[in-house]
Amino acid sequence: MHNTIKPKVTLVGAGPGDPDLLTLKGVKALAEANVVLYDALANEEIMNHAPKAAIKIFVGKRIGAHEYSQDQINQLIVDNALTYGNVVRLKGGDPFIFGRGSEEIEYTESFGIPTFVVPGISSAIAVPAYQGISLTKRGVSESFWVITGTTSDRNLSDDVALAAQSSATVVILMGMSKLSQIVSLFQKESKGETPVAIIQNGTTPQEKVGAGTIDTIQQVVAKNKLSSPAIIIIGEVVKESSKLKGFYEEFIASEIR
Question: Does residue 61 carry a catalytic annotation?
């Protein structure tokens, strides 16, 4: 029987949380899976697209759950592909945006197993969009940075200091534990009045939003009890959002008073 097994691995991006933001190509890949290795997804409804008979293995990081190391996950992908054939590795957001997807692909390909990637809608773009924040806008922002707040050695990325010097929109993922450092770096560049939005559990029914400026955002976080998982968006485009405009108009009016 094992002679007929054709190993294949597809990395599928599950999107930012709203299960409807999974791509059609992702749905098709899941429908053909013999095995699904999945992360802690914002919405496990996505798993309903896999066949009932498929083997489903949770390999994500969740408090209280057994944590697999990246090496163990790489090995599980290969072992399951060789044993069962068609493996889907389902990852939140996009597999190649801070998802370690490239490491999984490289390891799998070293065994001669064919690999495919189905891009996912990254939370870096989708979560601001759900709040009407356009990361680029003619005459306001010509570019954007997407930065991980916490690097592999648990420090704040050096790129945040560089981004603070630019006029670009800055999107920081996994940065809530480093918020005070982020604020300090922007204050050093005299950007205390730059608008900031923090969106927790974006694109899901549990979404919470806080808006302020570099100088006020820490008080906003405390007041609104915002915590991870959340995305930090810094830049003039934040106050251009129709959903947040009212806040900034009130904010400016209170400053004038």
Answer: yes
